[in-house]
Amino acid sequence: EAQVTQNPRYLITVTGKKLTVTCSQNMNHEYMSWYRQDPGLGLRQIYYSMNVEVTDKGDVPEGYKVSRKEKRNFPLILESPSPNQTSLYFCASSLWSGKLFFGPGTRLTVL
Amino acid sequence: DAKTTQPNSMESNEEEPVHLPCNHSTISGTDYIHWYRQLPSQGPEYVIHGLTSNVNNRMASLAIAEDRKSSTLILHRATLRDAAVYYCILRSSGGSNYKLTFGKGTLLTVNP
């Protein structure tokens, strides 16, 4: 089944403790991206990647890192999480400018 | 960045058609118009996309203005399951900017 998976689905952590949210797709998509969703602010893009080793900033990249070492994986790294990064995170992938497939979301709480 | 403008909310009655508008006056020739929707407590899902011509699929229709500066998503017979936030975005198929801006979308309420 074609899908985008994210892990973990739920995470509660403390300020400053490094964490990684994984994203994986099985559709051989070139484009992958991360979004955060906060009440009243809609979906905002954090980072995106056009292909292996090619990444670029979205609208809200501060406090996040990404890597794209393999085509199928696009992890989101929070080196020193802060409470303002408490949010619902979505990963998505697509072929170039084709339709986006979204993951199920990761709800992150930073205390 | 190519941005879109949508009404914050719209209301419809069940089994009636719904026309959701989107303005994108700065669209470029290589931008596709995409629509997604997000049901409560779920991730966004693809609805439809197009470049210049009107498009139909099993979920909806997309009407694109001749100058491409606006588009309309048409749900032919709204059901309660269509209540969601609908997002209109532009996706570049050329150039160097592949950043995506979703905005807040349009919250569609469907009345029984």
Helix content of chain A: under 10%
Strand order of the largest sheet of chain B: 1-9-8-3-4
Structural class category of chain A: mainly beta
Strand-pairing-aware structural class of chain B: mainly beta
Order of helices and strands of chain A: EEEEEEEEEEE
Q: What is the β-strand count of chain B?
A: 9
- Give the oligomer, counting copies of the same chain as homo and different chains as hetero: heterodimer
Amount of helix of chain B: under 10%
Task: Determine the strand fraction of chain B and express it as a percent band.
Answer: over 45%
Could you give a short account of the major beta sheet of chain B?
Answer: 5 strands, mixed
Radius of gyration of chain B using CA atoms only: 14 Å
Beta-strand fraction estimate of chain A: over 45%
Overall pLDDT metric of chain A: 95
Intertermini distance of chain A:
36 Å
Rg on CA atoms of chain A, Å: 13 Å
In the predicted model, the low-confidence regions of chain A spanning at least 5 consecutive residues are none
Q: How many beta-strand runs of chain A?
A: 11
Note down, in words, how this protein is organized.
- The complex is a heterodimer of chains A (111) and B (112).
- With 111 residues, chain A is mainly beta.
- Helices cover 0% and strands 51% of the residues of chain A.
- In chain A, strands 2, 4, 5, 6, 9, 10 and 11 form a 7-stranded mixed β-sheet that branches.
- In chain B, the strands form 2 sheets. Chain B has a 5-stranded mixed β-sheet, with no helix packed on it. In chain B, strands 2-7-6-5 form a 4-stranded antiparallel β-sheet, with no helix packed on it.
- In chain B, 0% of the residues lie in helices and 46% in strands.
- Chain B contains no helices and 9 strands.
- Chain B is mostly beta strands and 112 residues long.
- The interface between A and B is medium-sized, with 27 and 23 residues.
